[in-house]
């Protein structure tokens, strides 16, 4: 007895069969007639083949063995699922005959392993195998490892394999649904469809071509909104489809009239036949032969607003998972179109509001625009004083808090964010809301953590649970500091306009009086007209510059333009070319106007001999140069300090001091009024272009 025969005897005695294995495939191998097989009788098989086969048959993992020059196929029970209807006739047959449809891919790989002895590994390799009479899209992870024969050469290939089709296709479909869900909100339904189509176009495997049609029920037609894989306007995707028209070429070739009547969850399946010409294939070598049509019903609607036509992968059956995926695609398109419709309605309402607001004053319109663009923080609170609540990030920005630290509790906000009296008002309002459920709105002064004063509007409402019980409070907090400042500026401007109007009349009277005092009627008419024109030119300069970046010589001359004929003789302006900042130009200009008005009424310009000297410039060297300006009158009537100070006095002193951030003095010396300003350069001088 040879060594091989002795090994066979041991194996037969151990298992009762020729091969050690109890599965269906082991039984089939034992029962097969191997006399005509290229492998020959099992008793003649090499020992290494028998060992590999025994490992294969006793494995729960799908394993195949390709042996000999013909690469004859042997496998185990777990491999049956990959073979489908090719089992059991594939047993022992050459691999080329078992897998002719994929031999161009796996043949060279097997031959390489058999010839070169180098193992290979493939991850999720796409193979279109014919199983159960149909070419099927499949993905497989496997390796080819050479098996030595008994004489030291390479006798075959050992192939563990797992089918990853469900995972690969599932991940692909999940990516499509995820990308649909991540689409930005569209401005209208057409854009929503185009955005969705841009996602579907990436997944040509599951949707070789698709089309989205929107129904126009009044015109009884469907309009193409977007298409993938198919040319818009072609046979597959006409630009418009008349609903219910039986014309086989230009009519309702997809039967969309039926789809328009379907409810969500119901679909229509259409065969893709000669009516559609040569339909596009997408990434597949063959064209799809059927499509599924889904009604797209928007939220709150009772009939379909659109339809999705989805061609079916020609290499994949429309199973439950495939149908569910397409249903979710249609649902997400419906959601995107619903959002777009709601967004369009919001824009329409916003436009209506904008039109109604056109009649309001300019300042109010600017204020509303600032409020619309302003960011608002939100806060949710349980009602307990020691509760910190939940605050949006912008709350920290409003109050200058550390965004990474928890917000202060409601009790801690007293003194930290609100003065005690203001916090008490807020506390009372929140308690009333928690008691009655009625909302509140408060405008409160507050301050940031760094002490900077601000104003906020707080709007609050009760939070109720599912039973209607009040369980807390939610509120919004909006920084309205700019609005408050704007209101203060408006009030100041109105006061200034009133005051300027009164002063203007006084100036006109003074101009008329002084002109008439010296001139003939004809000369009076000419000079009076010139001075009134100069006064108007002064105001034009201020309006044109909007009190921004005004050159100080021009500003001074504009404010004293009604005394233009006195420049150089009784009015002397001394100083270098100086461009002053907006706030400084406003304060200085208003002060000069007041000083000039007073000089014309009571001071050096109220007679025929008085003189006004205006000087300005940068004084001092070294680390702290500063700006100085002086108005000095002389030669006028004796000065008597006023017993009562009005708005003009506040403009000359307080407004200038506040705007320039320096020292301002006004001396009613008997010889003439002297007004002096001393302020830091950064507060007054406008930097040259390009400088910080």
Briefly say what this structure is.
With 692 residues, this protein is α+β, with helices and mostly antiparallel strands.
Overview of the structural elements:
The chain has 692 residues and is an alpha+beta fold. It has 20 helices and 23 strands. It has a six-stranded antiparallel β-sheet. A hairpin with a 4-residue loop joins strand 1 and strand 2. The radius of gyration is 46 Å and the shape is elongated. It starts with a helix and ends in an 8-residue tail after the last helix.
Keywords:
20 helices; 6-stranded antiparallel sheet; 23 strands; 692 residues; alpha+beta; elongated
Radius of gyration: 46 Å
As residue ranges, the low-confidence spans are 1-17, 363-372
Question: What gross morphology would you assign?
Answer: elongated
What is the number of beta strands? 23
- What class, by secondary structure content? alpha+beta
Terminal CA distance reads 105 Å
Strand content: 15-25%
| Number of distinct helices | 20
Largest sheet: 6 strands, antiparallel
Helix proportion of residues, in percent? 25-40%
What is the typical, i.e. mean, pLDDT?
85
Enumerate the strands of the largest sheet in spatial order, edge to edge or round the barrel: 8-7-6-11-10-9
Q: How would the blueprint of this fold be written?
A:
Blueprint (H helix, E strand, L loop, with lengths): L2 H13 L8 H8 L15 H11 L5 E5 L4 E4 L4 H4 L11 H4 L4 H14 L3 E12 L2 E15 L5 E10 L1 H17 L7 H12 L9 E7 L4 E8 L11 E3 L13 H5 L7 E4 L18 E7 L9 E6 L8 H37 L5 H12 L2 E6 L8 E2 L1 H7 L13 H4 L3 H17 L3 E8 L5 E12 L5 E10 L1 H38 L2 H25 L4 E2 H8 L11 E4 L4 E2 L1 H20 L9 E9 L6 E9 L12 H14 L2 E7 L2 E9 H4 L8
Parallel strand pairs: 18-20
Antiparallel strand pairs: 1-2, 1-5, 3-4, 4-5, 6-7, 6-11, 7-8, 9-10, 10-11, 12-13, 12-16, 14-15, 15-16, 17-19, 20-21, 21-23, 22-23
């Amino acid at each position: 007895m040879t060594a091989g025969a002795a090994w066979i005897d041991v194996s037969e005695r151990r298992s009762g069969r020729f091969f050690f294995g109890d599965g269906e495939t082991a039984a089939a191998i034992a029962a097969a007639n191997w006399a005509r097989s290229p492998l020959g009788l099992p008793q003649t098989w090499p020992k290494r083949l028998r060992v590999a086969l025994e490992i294969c048959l006793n494995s729960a993992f799908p394993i195949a063995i390709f042996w000999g020059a013909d690469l004859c196929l042997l496998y185990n029970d777990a491999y049956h699922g990959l073979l489908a209807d090719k089992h059991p006739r594939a047993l022992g047959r050459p691999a080329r005959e078992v897998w002719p449809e994929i031999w161009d891919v796996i043949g060279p790989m097997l031959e390489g392993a058999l010839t070169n002895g180098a193992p290979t590994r493939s991850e999720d390799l796409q193979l279109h195998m014919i199983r159960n009479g149909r070419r099927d899209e499949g993905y497989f992870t496997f390796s080819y490892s050479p098996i030595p024969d008994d004489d030291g050469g390479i006798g075959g290939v050992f192939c563990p394999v797992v089918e990853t089709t469900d995972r690969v296709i599932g991940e692909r479909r999940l990516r499509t649904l995820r990308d649909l869900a991540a689409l930005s909100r569209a401005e209208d339904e057409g854009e929503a469809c185009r955005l969705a189509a841009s996602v579907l176009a990436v997944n040509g495997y599951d949707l070789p071509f698709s089309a989205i049609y929107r129904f126009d029920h009044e015109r009884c037609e469907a309009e193409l909104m977007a298409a993938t894989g198919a040319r818009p306007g072609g046979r597959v995707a006409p630009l418009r489809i008349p609903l219910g028209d039986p014309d086989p070429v230009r009519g309702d070739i997809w039967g969309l009239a039926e789809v328009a009547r379907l409810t969500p969850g119901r679909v229509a399946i259409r065969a893709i036949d000669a009516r559609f010409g040569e339909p596009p294939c997408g990434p597949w070598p063959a064209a799809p032969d059927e499509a599924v049509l889904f009604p797209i019903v928007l939220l709150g609607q009772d009939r379909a607003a659109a339809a999705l036509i989805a061609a079916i992968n020609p290499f994949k059956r429309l199973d439950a998972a495939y149908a569910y995926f397409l249903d979710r695609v249609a649902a997400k398109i419906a959601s995107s179109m619903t959002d777009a419709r709601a967004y369009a309605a919001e824009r329409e309402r916003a436009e209506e509001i904008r039109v109604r607001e056109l009649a309001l004053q300019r300042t109010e319109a600017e204020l509303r625009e600032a409020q619309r663009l302003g960011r608002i923080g939100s806060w949710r609170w349980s009602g307990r004083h020691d509760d910190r609540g939940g605050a949006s990030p912008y709350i920290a920005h409003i109050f200058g808090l550390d965004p990474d630290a928890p917000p202060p509790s409601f009790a801690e906000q007293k003194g930290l964010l609100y003065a005690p009296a203001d916090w008490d008002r807020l506390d009372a309002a929140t308690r009333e809301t928690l008691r009655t459920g009625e909302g509140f709105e408060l405008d409160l002064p507050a301050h940031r953590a760094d002490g900077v004063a601000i104003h906020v509007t707080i709007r609050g409402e009760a939070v109720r649970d599912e039973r209607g019980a009040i369980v807390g409070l939610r509120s919004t907090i909006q920084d309205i500091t700019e609005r408050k400042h704007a209101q203060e500026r408006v009030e100041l401007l109105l006061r200034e306009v009133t005051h300027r109007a009164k002063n203007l009349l006084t100036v006109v009277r003074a101009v008329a009086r002084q002109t008439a005092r010296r001139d003939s009627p004809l000369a009076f008419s000419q000079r009076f007209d010139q001075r009134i024109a100069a006064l108007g030119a002064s105001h034009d300069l201020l309006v044109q510059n909007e009190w921004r970046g005004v050159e100080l010589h021009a500003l001074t001359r504009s404010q004293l333009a009604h005394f233009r004929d006195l420049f150089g003789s009784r009015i002397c302006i001394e100083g270098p070319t100086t461009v002053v900042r907006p706030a400084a130009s406003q304060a200085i200009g208003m002060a000069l106007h007041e000083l000039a008005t007073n000089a014309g009424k009571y001071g050096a310009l109220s007679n025929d001999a008085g003189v006004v000297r205006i000087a300005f410039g940068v004084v001092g060297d070294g680390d702290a140069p500063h700006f100085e300006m002086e108005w000095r009158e002389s030669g006028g009537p004796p000065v008597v300090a006023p017993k009562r100070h009005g708005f003009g006095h506040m403009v000359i002193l307080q407004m200038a001091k506040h705007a320039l951030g320096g020292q301002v003095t006004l001396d009613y010396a008997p010889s003439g009024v002297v007004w002096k300003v001393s302020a830091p350069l950064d507060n007054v001088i406008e930097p040259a272009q390009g400088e910080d």
